[in-house]
Amino acid sequence: MTTSTWAGHATVAADAPRAHGTGRTALVFSGQGNQWLGMGRDLMAHEPSARAVLEEADGVLRAATGWSLLGELGASREESRLEDPAVLQPTLVALQIALARLLAERGVVADAFVGHSLGEISAAAAAGALDLAGALRLARLRGELMRRAVGTGRTALLGVDAEAAAALVARHGGAADIAAWNAPGSTLVAGDAATVRAVVDELAAQAVFARLLPGEIAFHSRFLEPLRADFAEAARGVEPRATTGALVSTVTGDVIEGPALDHTYWADNLRRPVRFVQAVDTLVDLGCRTFVEVGAHPTLSPSLTECCAARGVEPLVLPTLRRDEGEQENVLRTVWELRRTGAAAAARPRDGRKVRFLAAAGTEAPRIALRGRAAQFAAGVVATAITALDTVAPEAARTDPHHPTGARGTGTGTTASAVPSGGTPTGAHPETTRYGVSVDWDTTEDLRPEEASVVAGPVAPGAATVAAYGRTARSGWTRLLTARREVLPPPSAATPPGLAELTARCTAPRTVADTAAETAWHAERDVLVRLRAGLAPGHRSYLDMVLRITAAVLGGHAPRALHGIERHAAGDRPCWVHVARTEDGGADTTVMAEDGRPLLRVARSTWRERAAGTTTAPAAEAPAAPASGTTDLSALLAADAATREALLTERVRQAAATALRTTVDRVPAHQPLSKLGMDSVMGLEMRRSLDADFGVEIGLVRILRGATAADLAVGIAAELGDRLAPEPEPGAAHDQREPGHEPGPPDLDDPADIERLLADLDALSPEEVDSLLGRLAGDAAGEI
Fold first, then answer.
1. Burial, 139: exposed, middle or buried (Cβ in 10 Å; 0-12, 13-18, 19+)?
2. How confident is the model at residue 740 (pLDDT cuts 50, 70, 90)?
3. Is the CB of residue 474 less than 8 Å from the CB of residue 525?
């Protein structure tokens, strides 16, 4: 198991190395079209640096416009004014600058910056060419001018290259322009509404992807020419500065120096086409192989991947935020991935404390009998969370007499000189506040200890609460637990049993199935375990003993909650474990030294059983998924039902990962694909891939409504199984539905099916209609 912790309130060290494991790193700032109600709220609640940026931006915009940025981010659906470009554009820029600041604080060192359309303003600010006030002024003026652009024409996204798009436009009168080179096979055109519609209709008739974007604006075309001079005049006085890294322009496609970003440049940014393909080419030439999309939701990732593929480059493309998902959690995931690949530099905390990135392999641990493997993994996760608490929330620790940095600590964690076999520690000070740690598990998912990566970080920097996340090669990131400091109750008046009393009381032998146990005895609710010799000292190993032995005694699989984790002496060999079963089915467990001194205590733990019928198979036993285009249907049909579903689940995960432009480990089998960012366009791509493999259609609406990879695999398996079933008797009733279609709204096969979908929109909720149509148009459009 690989573990890592980091602290908040950190700034990038001035001498931090910039050599990255996957090439140089570029921050890519998206334009408008990826916004969603509620964006920014989680960052404001949990990330002080992001909130500071947004509060500063709020003051700037209030003074200039009278409306509140924080008010808009917190507005309800009925109150929101994000449909107004004069509100939306500065809001998106402020959010992106806050994200860039947060990434820098977390140690992400960017070598290059690029922005798509509106995103160029944010990119210039992140690169140091604009200050916050200047960036917001440009975004506000740009948004106010875009109000006047309504009625200038239409914009469409075409699934062809720019040369083919230009030929289509010429064939239909020529009253439109290339508005954006999004990718080698994806082009935006904008102009006269009739011309743009004719181009879309011709491609639709050929079953080639083509979509009209919502609204009546001919973005980045000759029809915005009247606004260019007005924007240049309004933007006079902008004072660009030198950049701190390479800033690549999507107006020219080349590196641009900061002082060149004057008022005329920003007018060109509004009017001229977006040369995103050319800009990515320049980034590749600069050695960039890692791309972080900075925005409310990833929409440029497919274009980035396609542009790099055209150059023979396999990039690492990561998001920052995702629609309707925990924002802090998503940023932490990306930072951890960048840290793993070397693209996030070491960070230096403001108060001089060292930020700790711990890495420890657990594969060499001895094989644990029966239930101990899940408990051992849990102990590692809890130990990582406690280490993170020590780093990010030191205030309680400094007054904790049981902590090495406590007011009375000796540096070893000891707080008393000795513990008599029948009493409490001598030298204890009952008037001193005692602190422990409380842990609540947030998931019942079992991760494989030998493969899992775990990262723990603060829920809010400086707060006495952290969250731990884990993943394996076969699962995406999962929030595992929440840990916080707690004030322990005063010591009980009743004297706890000492070692002499326990050995006298526990006389009935019993078996404790764990390799660390040498012998064990019990009496009523107490179990006393003598540990084998040679076990390692240290709080992490003590915690491992507590959870493994408790699991073996109670017959539990993994903990639900741990309360009152109290650390005592460290450095002595663990020799005894006392488990006192509680009336609620849990336990009070203490690890003791040879003389009975407590080394670590968990005052109360509650446990769960493994879910019925679930197993954790070794990785070597997992079936290999069929590769796209090479599926052996005869072998698949010949397999038993369980193997068939396992193979199909892995194939669906592969297809989903390809559509999402991510890796298979980020597509858990039992997580809704829509929650992973799967939109309608990606769903179409995935469905076509699976249809080519199996000849079975997948309902697009089903995907958008929360189907998982496992759900889709079950459906495909059922359809394939029907091929083995005997023919029905003549006249027998049978289901006439098309393969893969669930009852309900029609599906979307290709552009020609739009009319069929629109005819049955009443079957969807208003939110689903908005999401479906918005994603078909807005997200697919790249950015404008």
1. buried
2. very low
3. no
**pLDDT score at 661:** 67
Which residue type sits at 199? V
Residue with tokens 């019925």: 612
Question: pLDDT (tens digit, 9 = 90+) per residue, 22-78?
Answer: 789 999 999 988 999 999 998 998 888 899 999 999 999 999 999 999 999 999 999
Mode of pairing for the β-strands spanning 186-191 and 176-183: antiparallel
Distance (Å, rounded) from C-alpha 544 to C-alpha 560? 16
pLDDT by residue (tens digit) across 592-634?
999 899 999 999 999 988 654 444 333 333 344 444 444 556 6
Identify whether the C-beta of residue 209 lies closer than 8 Å to the C-beta of residue 155.
no
Question: Among all chains, which residue has been given the structure tokens 């000796």?
Answer: 410
Structure tokens at 375: 């408990």
Q: Tell me which H or E stretch contains 589.
A: strand 587-592
CA distance 162 to 186: 8
Which residue is associated with the tokens 């404001």? 44
Phi-psi region of 585 (alpha: psi -120 to 50; beta: other; left: phi over 0): left
Q: Taking the chain, what is the end-to-end CA distance rounded to the nearest angstrom?
A: 43
- Which residue, among 547, 561, 597, 564, has the nearest Cα to 413 in the 3D structure? 597
Write the DSSP assignment of 236-265 as a string of letters.
Answer: TT------SSEEEPTTTSSB--GGG-SHHH
Residue 109 has pLDDT above 90, yes or no: no
What is the C-alpha separation between 534 and 422, in angstroms, rounded? 26
Q: Is residue 751 helix, strand or coil?
A: helix
Q: Rg of the chain's alpha carbons, rounded to an integer? A: 30
The DSSP H or E segment spanning 577 is: strand 576-581
What is the per-residue pLDDT across 181-235, written as a single tens digit (0 to 9) for each?
999 999 999 999 999 999 999 998 998 889 898 889 999 999 999 999 999 999 9
Question: Residue 509: enclosing H or E segment and its boundaries?
Answer: strand 508-509
Structure tokens at 472: 């394996």
Reduce the secondary structure of 138-171 to three states and give it as a string. HHHHHHHHHHCCCCCCEEEEECCCHHHHHHHHHH
The Cα 116–Cα 108 span in angstroms is 21
CB within 8 A of 265, min separation 6: which ones?
251, 256
Distance (Å, rounded) from C-alpha 472 to C-alpha 666? 9
How far apart CA 580 and CA 44 sit, in angstroms, is 44
Q: Which two tokens stand for residue 753?
A: 């099916």
Whole-model pTM: value is 0.54
Q: How many CA atoms lie less than 13 Å away from 188 in the CB half-sphere?
A: 30
User: How high is the pLDDT of residue 19?
Assistant: 34
Q: State the alpha helices, DSSP H only, in 215-371.
A: 225-234, 263-271, 276-285, 301-310, 327-341
Instruction: Lay out the sheet containing 112-115: strands in order across.
Output: 246-248, 112-115, 24-29, 288-294, 316-319
Residue pLDDT, tens place only, 337-349: 887 777 765 443 3
